[in-house]
Amino acid sequence: MAVPDKDTQLEWYRQMVLIREFEQACHDLYSQKRITGVYLHLYSGHEAIGVAAVAAMQKPIDSMITAYRDHGLAIALGVELGPLMAEMMGRRAGTSHGKGGSMHIASVEHRFYGGYAIVGGNIPLAAGLAFESQYNNTGGANICFIGDGASNNGYFHESLNISGAWDLPNVWIIDNNLYGMGTEIARSAGNPILHERAIGYGVKDMGRIDGQDVFAMYDAVTEAMDHARSGKGPVLIEAMTYRYFGHGMSDKQYDIRAEELKQWREEKDPITLLHKKINEQFGNQDAVLAKFEADAQEQVAACVVFAEASPLPDTIEELMANVYIETAE
Question: Which end of the chain has the lower number of beta carbons within 10 A, N or C?
Fold first, then answer.
């Protein structure tokens, strides 16, 4: 495929550094107990996958759904930072009025349907979203992100089977960050080459893609979406990546994998790789890229101020709204 133009690549860089800055702020705020809750799952290290996938979507016909590592995807889709951070803090101004929190980010406006805390719970919903597109002949396709650990869940196999049987316009992307929670995939899967599971369900197998390379991911997801939209059926991509923090904030496994983490950060960081590629193609762009980084810091600082200025939902009426359907007596 043709190499994206300079403006496109700069926009990818802007989005990636904004995601990285937002996630670092969430890490710090959680450590300070300004973001609360049991879990916080960060997207740091995965940025190229989400940015490339969003770039391959056609608005407004395509949709996206994911699991609990969802903040970065929301940012790439254009969800405003203020309401996003307010949701992280459980505030009224949040994307779901503070009721969803970190693991349940969603925006119907952006065709982003979550954010699910149940492992694999998003996968059958993705088949449903694709079925809706097929049934109503919208011409769109659905992108569903799946963790490597979730690919062992029954939901995965049932959903890939039905998508293959019905030629649903699904693009399944496995984010293989090597450790489903804390267990190496080779120890939890009889066949750790996860993309090969596509073959058993009649799903197009696009193999392993370097998830740290935004260009490789963009090419792969664009091809996959074109295939799915054309009525040829679903596609499975295995994106190889690495998370820079543990499964959640309470996960300390990286204390014993410090050398591995250091190697990924130094040799395979998606932002560093894109920075280098932009300079190779267009000459020294360091000043422009540094401006994006400074802007990201300012935007994230402002969204924290916005979030903390929003009140908590503090009445029974607010807490119960949108939970049950009211019917006439």
Answer: C
- Answer yes or no: is pLDDT of 329 > 70: no
Which residues lie closer than 8 Å to 46 by C-beta, 6 or more apart? 69, 72, 175, 177, 211, 241, 243, 270
Identify whether the C-beta of residue 65 lies closer than 8 Å to the C-beta of residue 57. no
Ranges assigned E (strand) in the chain: 63-65, 142-147, 170-176, 179-180, 183-184, 204-210, 235-240
Q: Residue 325: inside a domain, yes or no?
A: no
CATH number for the domain that contains residue 79: 3.40.50.970
Residue 321 included in any domain? no
Cα–Cα–Cα angle for 19, 23, 29, rounded to 5 degrees: 145
The per-residue pLDDT for range 53-110, each reduced to its tens digit, is: 999 999 999 999 999 999 999 999 999 999 999 999 999 999 999 989 999 999 999 9
* Domain boundaries, position 181: 6-310
Residue recorded with tokens 């280098």: 276
Q: Answer yes or no: is 100 within a domain.
A: yes
**Average of pLDDT values for 236-254?**
84
Any idea what the Cα angle at residue 217 is, between residues 132 and 53, rounded to 5°?
35
Q: Confirm if 77 and 112 have CB atoms less than 8 A apart.
A: yes
134: tokens are 């097929």
170-196 tens-digit pLDDT: 999 999 999 888 788 888 889 999 999
3-state DSSP of 94-109: CCCCCCCCHHHCCEHH
Residue 253's pLDDT is: 67
For residue 327, is it within any domain? no
Domain count of the chain?
Answer: 1
